[in-house]
Design goal:
This protein has about 190 residues and is mainly β. The protein is built from 1 helix and 11 strands, in the order E-E-E-E-E-E-E-H-E-E-E-E.
């Protein structure tokens, strides 16, 4: 949406005027996950239930007029998994996860990351990293997906992912993401 930050200016005649500055920006993000998933009933092809554990690292670089600055979140996330197979060629799945704890790195409130003898990145991680439990970092991720078999070796899929995060320190920040992902999987 067209969001704006409003400032008041006083002209040479002393009249106040509201000035709107667009607050639009971009969010560049990179995420890496490594995890394990245990399926309780692997022989049941129609309904599969599982538990998982993922180590996740997310890097965010927002840009625009108003921005919270560079942010990194490293977290340990337990998850629940369910998959239903309609036929050997058609499957749907649901996955839900939330962090047990995280190391959250954000710009300090004073926006300075310089430390003697350290690079700005090292200063950011030294000054801006906090160990966060559920009290200071809350997040939830839900993914819904479909996989269809195109041939014996080729599958195609589509996933919708909803992410919600609330970070309390150094100042409260809330964010949500909606992702639509397409995939092609080739099995050897």
């Amino acid at each position: 949406p067209d969001r704006a930050v409003y400032f008041q200016e006083k002209d040479e005649n002393g009249e106040l005027k509201n000035v709107a500055v667009p607050a639009n920006g971009n969010l560049l993000s990179v995420r890496m996950d490594i995890g394990y998933q245990y399926i309780f009933n692997p022989t049941d092809k129609q309904n599969r239930f599982g538990l998982g554990l993922t180590i996740s690292d997310e890097l965010y670089n927002p840009s625009g007029f108003t921005r919270p600055g560079l942010m990194n979140i490293a977290s340990l996330n337990p998850s629940l998994y369910y998959e239903h197979e309609f036929s050997p060629a058609h499957r749907v799945h649901v996955n839900a996860s939330a962090p047990a704890f995280a190391f959250v790195t954000r710009l300090p409130y004073d926006n300075t990351v310089s430390l003697p003898g350290k690079s700005p990145i090292a200063g950011l991680f030294s000054k801006g990293t906090n160990f966060s439990s559920w009290a200071n970092y809350q997040a939830f991720e839900l993914s819904l997906g479909y996989k269809g078999r195109i041939s014996d070796n080729l599958n195609a899929g589509i996933d919708y992912v909803y992410q919600w995060k609330s970070i309390a320190q150094p100042k409260p920040l809330k964010m949500q993401n909606n992702l639509l992902l397409a995939s092609f999987l080739y099995e050897f």
